[in-house]
Design a protein that fits this description.
single chain; mainly alpha
Length: 90
């Protein structure tokens, strides 16, 4: 991995929750898209997975960690709140 410049993504010693959000995401993706079906080829699988992530997960699906909004809606709310906050002038 080091030769290829890949950083291992593993929990730190004594902290099993480091990857909890990512593990939950992949569990949801597998349960909602891939476990119950087969794909014709790798191209079809990749296309449907990317589409599911970009369209459904990011724009429509409510996420508990984001107060049951989609990532896109949550980001828009955060940006709106940031614009409404007066800047600290020091």
């Amino acid at each position: 991995m080091e030769d290829l410049g890949i950083i291992a993504s593993m929990s730190r010693k004594g902290n099993p929750r480091d990857n909890a959000v990512v593990e939950s995401f992949f569990s949801s993706l597998k349960n909602e898209l891939t476990h119950h079906r087969s794909f014709i080829n790798q191209h079809q699988a990749r296309s449907e997975i990317v589409g599911t992530i970009e369209i459904f997960f990011n724009r429509n699906r409510a996420h508990a960690t984001l107060h049951y909004t989609s990532p896109v809606a949550y980001e828009e709310m955060s940006n709106t709140a940031r614009l409404k906050c007066p800047k600290n002038t020091g």
